[in-house]
Amino acid sequence: MEAKFLDSIIFRQNKQQVVPSNQTIANWAQNLLNLIFPERGASTNYTQEILKGVFFELKEELQFILKSTKACKKDHYKDIADAFFEQLPEVYRKLSTDLASLVDGDPAAQSEFEIIRCYPGFFATAMYRFAHELYMLDVPYIPRIITEYAHTVTGIDIHPAAVIGEYLYIDHGTGLVIGETTVIGNHVKLYQGVTLGALSVDKSKSNTKRHPTIGNHVIIYSGATILGGLTVVGDHSLIGGNVWLTTSVPENSTVYHQAEIKIKSS
Questions:
Q1: Is domain 20-156 annotated with CATH 1.10.3130.10?
Q2: CA dihedral 109, 113, 115, 117 (to 10 degrees)
Q3: C-alpha to C-alpha distance for 216 and 166, rounded to whole angstroms
Q4: pTM of this prediction?
Q5: pLDDT digits (tens, 9 = 90+) for 159-196
Q6: Which of 135, 145, 228, 266 is most exposed, with the fewest beta carbons within 10 Å of its own?
């Protein structure tokens, strides 16, 4: 190999920011999910004292991850870990609403156990909710690593900065994209292939509202694309499959893609 090529690798190595491996971070998030939803396969023989000990271990592991990034002020990683775990009951409550939305809304769902163990939408939502709390605590890198891990294993891409309400329902989910500045209300149903994206990917648009706002009790069917920071979908609206939408629609709207049917003459 050419010395210049090897030198370029050494240069990148020397300037890189120290962050634990993606798998270490993903394992921490998964272990936390397994603990709060033991249906995923974790032990169900916990006592309160044992649970306290396990939560303490997970908090210490989060502190290690945060400290290793060297992106926090001195000893601030302890405050961040404490704040995250203080919010964990609220995260669990929101995840319980997401679970309820799938139990109540999906005719194929037989039980909570099936959803917790099998549904990629629930897994991706859980990873998003963990990542979002860390994002709100100004933690760099780690939130995106968590949601990108979920993206890898589920095909569901949710940016940790997106603001998502309660009772989120993601069915199937493959190819679903929820962009950074998306705002989603309560009781929203999203199907596979939905894109909540930006009209422009120009770098100058950073730090602006680029992605749509979705109201409460909205259903968006598979393949629909909704773009733009000024685009608002009003409450109780239904967006049909394969719709391309770049303008706002009022409450109680129904938007369909009009398919053209041609009958071949003999």
A1: yes
A2: -140
A3: 10
A4: 0.91
A5: 999 999 999 999 999 999 999 999 999 999 999 999 99
A6: 266
